Amino acid sequence: MEAYIIIGFLFGFPLVVGTLFRVSTSFLFATILAAELLERYFVYDVQLVLQPFIGSDIALEYVGIIMLSLPVIFTGIFLKGSLSRVRVALHFIPLVLCGIVFAAFAGPILPEVIQSELMQIEVGRILLENSNFIVGVTVFLHLFALWFLTKVKDEKPKKK
Asked: Does the residue 19 lie in any domain?
């Protein structure tokens, strides 16, 4: 049962932030990608800095997921209202895709105890075993939407 709650949180976190703060999906997606890069390259340095203040090694295992989550929260706070109320419904599917990417990034950096719990359910096993594929497909879908579904205004004046 706990594994389903964890999976729900991982998938739903960007969706909740995006709808609650009405943040554009493009901003949220870019934030998730940037947060993953920050986590990947700086988690060990942050753990070294925090180790004297946090005596527990168990608590240090959560630094990565916190580093992945905080930029998403800050994006929600600082870019609140970047999406009109009317357009929030249109961004539901892209927000779900953001949730999938967030879960694919977060799953492998969770502590091993939680990962072993997730491996006991089918969705968790798929998430952990195929995170690279999931991220690749979702990034491609976002790029496809950006390239082909975004209207660009023509700056040229119309002739009469």
From this structure: yes
